[in-house]
Amino acid sequence: MIKNFTPFLILLSLVLTSCGSYKTIPYFQDLDHTKETTETIDNYTPLTIKPADILAINVTSRTPESSAIFNYNLNRVNGNSFDTSRENPLTGYLVAEDGRIQLPLLGSTLVSGLTTDSLSKILTRKLLTYYKDPMVNIRIANLKVSIFGDVAKPNAYTLQNERTTITQALSLAGDLNITGMRKNVILIREKDGKRKYIPIDLTSKKLFESEYYYLQNNDEIYVTPDRTKYATVDRGYRTASLVLAGLSIIAIVLSNLYR
Fold first, then answer.
1. How many domains in the chain?
2. Residue 44 near residue 115, CB atoms below 8 Å
3. What are phi and psi of 242, to 5 degrees?
4. HSE-up of 34 (CA within 13 Å, CB side)?
5. The predicted structure's pLDDT at residue 37
6. Whole-angstrom Cα distance, residue 124 to residue 120?
């Protein structure tokens, strides 16, 4: 007969807890993993340029020495030095609050609301007046997302690809920790002067169809930790508190003995 049931009950509790919690861990649980499936992608909308974006614009032509006036190669934005402390400083044209940038030869140019591809075509047509066979490449240099909460590597991440998904971004952060709640991820997005808090469920393949699957500039992703993480930390604090209390009692007893 077992005289002390405590270790047995603790072990049984841990086994049952681990079995129950595993159901919340796998991603895309409603996806059929036994066969190949195909679906049409119709929820991607190209990013549009907004105020405070920094545009990296590169112009080439038959006279590269002349067209090089468009291309920043210093730590500058619109001719002003900035953030020279960065290891890889951003360079480009800062989009003003009125949605415009100041370009050589072309002057004030409205760019807000355009995609980088459409702006590239517009500038190419305008530059035909000045250069032969101009080619314009544009990207948003300060494109980034912030990922924090219960992930392996919380940080603000600069994105090289305008077509970045929420799953790709979470991969940059080293994925969720095992204690991260897959059904309780929050996407925080600012748009048109409003801040939205969007719940994301990573356990459902419906995420792929969501309008929020593809990220916008300055999106923030928060991963909520489950109670297991809190319990672990809390247990550590309580253990440390008990140890300190015990040491204090021992110190008091020893002090009284040697008086």
1. 2
2. no
3. -65, -40
4. 1
5. 87
6. 6
Distance CA 140, CA 130 (A): 25
User: Which residues span the domain enclosing 162?
Assistant: 22-39+143-225
Mark 217-228 as b/e (b = at least 16 C-beta within 10 Å): bbbbbbbbbbee
Residue 124: pLDDT above 60?
yes
Single out the residue of 48, 61, 69, 63 nearest to residue 124, CA to CA: 61
How is residue 145 written in tokens? 């997302």
Residue 256 lies in a domain: no
Alpha-carbon Rg for the chain, nearest whole angstrom, is 28
Write down how long the chain is: 259
Question: What predicted TM-score, i.e. pTM, was given to this entire model?
Answer: 0.74
What's the first-to-final CA gap in the chain, in angstroms?
A: 49
Ranking 13-22, 31-40, 64-73 by mean pLDDT, the lowest is 13-22
Phi, psi of 117 (to 5 degrees): -70, -45
Structure tokens given for 66? 């002349």
